[in-house]
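Summary for the steering committee. One of the milestones for this cycle was to obtain a three-dimensional model of the protein with magnesium ion bound, which we needed before selecting residues for the alanine scan. The sequence and ligand used are listed below.
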Amino acid sequence: MSDYLPPWAPRDGLRITGVRPIVTAPDVTLVVVRVETNEPGLYGLGCATFTQRFEAVAAAVEHLAPLVVGRHPGDIEDITRMVHLSGYWRNGPVLNNALSGLDMALWDILGKRLGVPVYELLGGRVRGAVPLYTHASGATIDETIAQARSLVDAGYRHIRLQTGGPGLGTYGAPGTPGGYPRAPYPDGWDVQRYLAVTPELFARARAELGAEVSLLHDVHSRLTPKQAIALCRALEPYRLFFVEDPVAPEHYDRLPEVRAASPVPIAAGEQLGSVAEAARLVTSGGVDLLRLHVSAVGGLTPARKLTALCELTGTQTAWHGPADVSPIGQAANLALDMTTSAFGIQEGHAYPDVVHEIFPGTPRARDGYVEPPHAPGWGIDIDEEQAAKHPPKRYGHERWATRVRRPDGAIESP
Ligand code: MG
């Protein structure tokens, strides 16, 4: 008998027979884990997407496979805790993404066995559909507002606004190359210009888009705590839905003071790779909205516990959902969104058609809302033949981060 089998008797013959990573890069590089069982046609899929370190995650998935082959796939709590503890040193985005791939795949299998979508396993829906926010990111304020207006026309009521600038531009928006010609790094990003222009962007947006649209902004962790407070105060008149990641994760212990001084709700957490740190972010009073890359904290199992913590502490959720979350990962976000009163907002991404071909069942947004698939499990499959047509390349995503520097050349939190 394997050392990894549980000390209780098996209740039926169902067993995990294999665990393997699938890496595909139709748009950005995605990592999915497939868990096989000995029941013909019964398998599960989970998101393990850490685009910047996909090979390390794939290796971690292969490492954990022998720990779980032979287990009953319904023992989700025991299996995921055993895998988590078995490394002795635990957490971090590589190990947690591998764990998430396994964890979400087990939830998928459970839903398929019972013939229900995962959201029903979490207690059932508390809303009809999930409202999304999406991104308007022009090179100029005029362009950003024009993009936002077309998104409003398409039905979105929550829009993240970023606008470009000289050099690198602002996070999420294009820059003007050579914008600081007299600086050591002409393509740099200037914090003082950013602090001056961002309130101008929102003044214009509120005046031109009206009172009803929700406006959001992502600092992308580039400010000091004091600069973050100054920005949030300057944005107060424009009633933002949230300001995201005002400081870098290394400085999260300063978030409670930023939040206490900010008249604008603070959303943070997407760079965390630990469920314990995410819990502390909530209990320390550091966030109004907890914002996780759910696979980076270990998957649905830890995320549903954090969601319950949010409900109990008056905190809201705003899960990370851009291109570097796979459709399976977004399905897990939506299952949480559908089933909690702590839901704040969901980041949406319109996947290109090629992603829909690889992941049949991926839902499309309509009028600013999306419904999770209603088929059993996640309701999303993978076409491995299509996936194999898009092999990944190294260093796509992180090359961008290595170029985020101030005009004096100092590297910046991306
Ligand atoms: Mg962000």
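Key point for the committee: The first strand starts at residue 16 and ends at 24.
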